Amino acid sequence: MSTLPETARASAAAAPIRVSATPSTAATADVPVEAEEIAFDIRNFSMWYGQRQALQDITIRIAARKVTAIIGPSGCGKSTFLRALNRMHDLTPGTRLEGSLKHFGRDLYGPGIDATAVRRRVGMVFQKSNPFPTMSIAENVLVGLRLNGVRDRSVLQERLEQSLRMAALWDEVKDLLNRPGTSLSGGQQQRLCIARSLAVQPDTLLMDEPCSALDPIATAKIEELIQTLREKYTVVIVTHNMQQAARASDRTAFFYMGRLIEFGDTRKIFTNPGNPQTEAYVSGRFG
C-alpha cells in the first residue's frame, strides 16, 4: 500500500510553477502490464459532447484485479472517462467517440453490443449514495437480479447475504432487511449501493468519488472494503483526495485537460513522477 510521502506534502510550499495550457500528448506509462490480465485495453480514445471535446487520445491498459485511481483537477475528464467504461454516455444526446475501448478483449462500443449487458459486467457506484427510497434494504440489493428475471427465492436469499457480506454490511443490517434503505447512515447507504452493484456479479466495479460525502470513519470503511474487493474484482476509482489515491490504489492515472498525462504504480506517481505536470499536481502547486 502507498502513503502520501512527507516530501510531496512539503514541496507544496515551494514556489509555484507554470503549468502548460497544452498538456503533453504522450502519457508516461511505466507499468509492466504485458504479463498481467488486462481488464480495459483502451487505444486512442477520444470523446465529444456536441462540439466540445472532453477526452483526447487516451491510451491506457488497466490491469484486472487491481485498484486503479484516476486523479486530476476538476473538469479534467476523470468522471467522463470513468463513465465511458460502462457506456453511461449513451444516455447523453450528442455524444460521439473515436478509438477503441475493450473490456477483457471485447469492444464495448462494437456493433451489436448491448449497453445494458455491459453495465451488468461493469458496475457503477456514484458520488452520492442513491438507494431507492421506496424499497427496503433487501429489495435495494436484489432489484438488479429481479429486473434480470431471477425469481428463485433460494438464489435471491443466497445472493442477498453474499452481496451484503462482500460490502461489509451484513452484520449491521441482517436484522433490519425490511427497513427502508434510506433509513441507514450515509456510509451504510454507500455500502448498500456497492452491495446492489455486486449482486448482479460484475467483474469490474467503477467508483466515482464514493467517499466525498462521507465522514472519516465511513471513508475508512469504504477504503478497507476496496482492498477486499480487489481480490476478486477490478476496481477503478475517481477521487479528488490524493491521500486516498495513495492509500487505496495500486496504480494511478493523472488526467489534465482531457488528456492522460501519466500512468504508473501509485508509489512512483507520488514519490518520483516522470512528468513535471504530475509533480506539480501531486505536490499541490495547482489544482
CATH superfamily: P-loop containing nucleotide triphosphate hydrolases
CATH architecture label name: 3-Layer(aba) Sandwich
What is the string of SSEs from the N terminus onward? HEEEEHEEHEHHHHEHEHEEHH
Q: What count of structural domains?
A: 1
N/C terminus separation: 24 Å
Helical proportion, percent range: 25-40%
What percentage of the residues does DSSP assign to strands (E)?
A: 15-25%
Give the class from helix and strand content and strand pairing: alpha/beta
Report on this structure.
With 287 residues, this protein is an alpha/beta fold. The protein has a single domain, classed as 3-Layer(aba) Sandwich (Rossmann fold), CATH 3.40.50. It has 11 helices and 11 strands. A hairpin with a 2-residue loop joins strand 10 and strand 11. Helix 4 crosses helix 5 and helix 7 runs parallel beside helix 8. The N terminus is likely disordered.
Summarize the topology.
Elements: H1 6-10, E1 28-29, E2 38-49, E3 52-63, E4 67-71, H2 78-84, E5 95-103, E6 106-107, H3 115-121, E7 122-125, H4 137-147, H5 153-166, H6 170-173, H7 186-199, E8 204-208, H8 216-229, E9 234-238, H9 242-248, E10 251-256, E11 259-265, H10 266-271, H11 276-282
Parallel strand pairs: 1-11, 4-9, 4-10, 7-8, 8-9
Antiparallel strand pairs: 2-3, 2-5, 5-6, 10-11
